[in-house]
Design goal:
The chain is an alpha/beta fold. It folds into two domains: 256 residues, Type I PLP-dependent aspartate aminotransferase-like (Major domain) (Aspartate Aminotransferase, domain 2, 3-Layer(aba) Sandwich); 203 residues, Ureohydrolase domain (Arginase, Chain A, 3-Layer(aba) Sandwich), CATH 3.40.800.10. It is 37% helix and 14% strand. It has 16 helices and twelve strands.
Length: 490
């Protein structure tokens, strides 16, 4: 905890938990804003390319965070910018209807209510019988031939309910319905890759869980719908040739490639956008930095990685900090990690396989298919567990991606792969680490997606797995403390 406290202020000696309203600035952001503030104090220092470089930097940072291409990002003053861009830009006509959930946040609803003079109707969807939340199935049941769009929050502002975007989005795509999502109460607080979800437009406030300045926001626009959206508010800086002020204007409205055509005017507001870029860069480092903090404190640390994917790509679609590159970043950038041990891996590319083979034993991967074949030949899981644990050093950080489990245990996670561990196999593996005398010094649990259908199945499995992770971490550290105390007393 102390490693992370240094990135923030002291909050007046209190614990601050209200990022749903206003996220705090990390020190990186405060320092960046001070640098940008100097540019207003000394405008002679503003370079001619600042107004191009800053939006590009922000787009790269946002794309790293969301796992998409920078050309899919656009920036404005908040989530309302993207929600209005969708409402005004989507090809909605007289007689079309937009579905929203009863009790939805006004910022999601009102941009579509504003279309009433054009004959577009907003229809509210209520929870199903006995339901407390408007779930994906409630929206799907409400579809009619007139339904052209659904507008919904990823995480409900009043209850924290997270809707099943996969189920809703797939149903929308089957019927040619646009899905517009407000991610303000989720993005930054939960791990989320837009490539894993059938979302057309995702609008996010920058000042909540993204820790950016007030008056910032980002919007992802899927390439599949980009050219179907009309630009309602023209920003002259997003047309071709805007940076070439030494040439005569022909006033032709030819937008640049990508979603930047929807950027709000004065998009390079460096006091805001500079700080926002810094906040997203900070968040993109969090998972790797968490491991790095533990490795710095425990040199020689072993990273125990349970996952369906190797996550060893040097970059994914050009993004070094992609979720698909986390383990590569750890191995490349954190020398204090002495070994990466992977279990459950059953989905990787040739480059990742070569990376493992060339690691000289620093990366030890127990492929799911090889373990299964050995069990078919008579080796027990208990024997395999001992073989796996023997490769770990004394101090261990566990990074557990829930899709390392059998998909029946996490059916709503975004990147399921057949195979994987049963719950008992996974917990036996964690137990064996500690029973061997090794110590779990930290852990993370990722890719958990709530069921959203009232069953709470994914949540139940994840909560029980989290309970086991906490329990075995405490047991191992307690045993280590007792052993040290006995040594001190002899």
């Amino acid at each position: 905890m102390n490693d992370w406290k240094r990135h923030f202020g002291d909050f007046g000696g209190r614990a601050y938990l209200d990022c749903a309203a206003q996220g705090p600035f990390p020190r990186d952001v405060s320092e960046e804003i001070q640098r940008q503030l100097r540019l207003k104090e000394h405008p002679e220092e503003i370079g001619p390319d600042l107004f191009e470089r800053l939006p590009e930097r922000a787009a790269v940072a946002a794309a790293r965070l969301l796992g998409c291409h920078p050309s899919s990002m656009t920036f404005g003053s908040g989530a309302s910018h993207g929600l209005n861009a969708a409402a005004l830009g989507l090809p909605l006509r007289d007689g079309d209807e937009v579905l929203v959930g009863r009790g939805e946040f006004p910022a999601v609803v009102l941009p579509f209510v504003n279309l009433a003079p054009a004959g577009v109707r907003v229809r509210f969807v209520h929870p199903g019988a006995g339901g407390r939340h408007v779930a994906a199935d409630d929206f799907i049941a409400a579809f009619s031939p007139k339904t052209r769009a659904v507008a919904v929050s990823l995480v409900a502002f009043a209850t924290g309910y997270r809707i099943d975007l996969d189920r809703l989005g797939e149903a929308c795509r089957e019927r040619g319905i646009f899905l517009v999502v407000d991610g303000s109460q989720g993005i930054g607080g939960i791990e989320f890759r837009v490539a894993d979800h059938p979302v057309d437009v995702l609008a996010v406030s920058g000042y909540k869980w993204l820790f950016g300045p007030y008056g910032t926001g980002l919007t992802y626009i899927s390439p599949r719908v980009l050219d179907r959206l009309r630009v309602a508010v023209v920003n002259w800086q997003t047309v071709e040739g805007a940076a070439q002020l030494n040439r005569p204007f022909d006033y032709a409205l030819r937008f640049r490639e990508g979603a930047c055509r929807f950027d709000a005017p004065q998009r390079a507001s460096f006091l805001n956008l500079g700080g926002f870029a810094a906040s997203m860069e900070f968040l993109a480092r969090v998972r790797v930095s968490t491991i790095e903090a533990h490795a710095t404190r425990h040199p020689g640390l072993g990273l125990f990685h349970v996952d369906a994917h190797a996550d060893l790509r040097p970059a994914y679609e050009g993004f070094t900090w992609s979720h698909a590159s986390i383990m590569d970043n750890v191995v490349e950038r954190i020398p204090q990690v002495s070994r990466l041990v992977q279990v459950g891996i059953r989905d990787l590319c040739e480059e990742e396989h070569e990376r493992i083979a060339a690691s000289g034993g620093r990366i030890r991967t127990f492929f799911d298919s090889e373990l299964a074949e050995a069990r078919f030949a008579g080796e027990t899981w208990g024997q395999q567990v001992l073989r796996i644990v023997e490769t770990l050093p004394a101090d261990v950080y566990v990074t557990f991606d829930v899709d390392g489990l059998d998909p029946t245990l996490c059916p709503h996670t975004g990147t399921k792969v057949p195979g994987g561990l049963s719950f008992q196999m996974a917990t036996a593996l964690l137990a064996a680490v500690v029973r061997s005398g090794r110590r779990i010094v930290g852990f993370d649990l990722t890719e958990v997606v709530p069921a959203g259908d009232g069953t709470e199945w994914d949540e139940n499995v994840a909560a029980r797995l989290l309970y086991k992770l906490i329990g075995w971490t405490l047991i191992g550290n307690l045993a280590s403390t007792r052993a040290r105390d006995r040594g001190d007393n002899t």
